[in-house]
Amino acid sequence: MAVPVDTLISPEMFSRRLAAAGEEPLRQALVGAVTHLHALIRDLKPTPAEWRSLIAFLTEVGHASDDRRQEWVLLSDLLGATALVEEVNAHRPRQATPGTLRGPFFRADVPPRTLGSDISLDGVGERLAVFGRVVDLDGEPVAGAEIITWQANAAGLYENQQPDLQPEHNLRGLFQTDGEGRFHYLTVRPAGYGVPDDGPVGIMLLKAGLPLRRPAHLQFLIKAAGFETLVTHLYDGSDPHLAEDPLFAVKPELICRFERIGEKPCWQLDFTFVLARARKQRARI
């Protein structure tokens, strides 16, 4: 007896072939991804050569990723996917500081620094004094919160982009808030920068005409017991590229004024971060 065979390539065919005993959230995610992928293919009608070119591009993205550079994260960021994931998962109260994306230049192995330390290990650039405070939704200080900060230098380059030119862990630091929820440190004023265009992701999106200039900013990851972890940016309000951030991460609440202090080229930034209480997380895939 002949075995019936599906002849119509469709998401439904894919769904029927998934084992009934499979994990349901994973099944749903796969069926959803295949449904959209098939719809895109039917709409664009790529040739076999064009499809192989796409696979070759994805292969190049993988080859360009390593411990220091994450081209996959860059692709997700520039397609707006990372910002959208943050948005659909953001259930913070309106008073809480908005979250943004972590980006491809984050490093978890940041050395602890004492309050008031200078994280500019080469001292190149205009001085910037950063003062911060971490509070809860009621304005009460969050003592002992961990603050990881990282940024580009005065030329718009991160330390892990220039491992042979910048000192290890330049412009990075791990701080802890004091009893009043405060922290402070010295650094240099960062410059905006072009998203890396020397890899497959940047090359492709440049060809497509996407603006790749990020406005100047500082980045923070703030963690405290009992609170949602916050990853966010603080943007230089004088930067002309705020409206075209290619990572879709600029939010009005995060645009700051860098104030000049003294006669020398020295700046000051003061910002209060508001954390939301942790909530029970739903089951993940």
TrEMBL record:
GO biological process: catechol-containing compound metabolic process
Residue intervals of the Intradiol ring-cleavage dioxygenases domain: 122-275
Record-linked SUPFAM superfamilies: Aromatic compound dioxygenase
Chain ranges of the Catechol dioxygenase N-terminal domain: 28-96
Gene Ontology molecular function: any one: catechol 1,2-dioxygenase activity
A Pfam family hit: Dioxygenase_C
Stored InterPro entries: Catechol_dOase_N, Intradiol_dOase_C, Intradiol_dOase_core, Intradiol_RC_Dioxygenase
Cofactor dependency: Fe(3+)
Keywords recorded for this protein, A-Z: Dioxygenase, Iron, Metal-binding, Oxidoreductase
Matching PANTHER family: DIOXYGENASE, PUTATIVE (AFU_ORTHOLOGUE AFUA_2G02910)-RELATED, INTRADIOL RING-CLEAVAGE DIOXYGENASES DOMAIN-CONTAINING PROTEIN-RELATED
Similarity comment: family membership: Belongs to the intradiol ring-cleavage dioxygenase family.
Protein name: 6-chlorohydroxyquinol-1,2-dioxygenase
Organism expressing this protein natively: Shinella kummerowiae
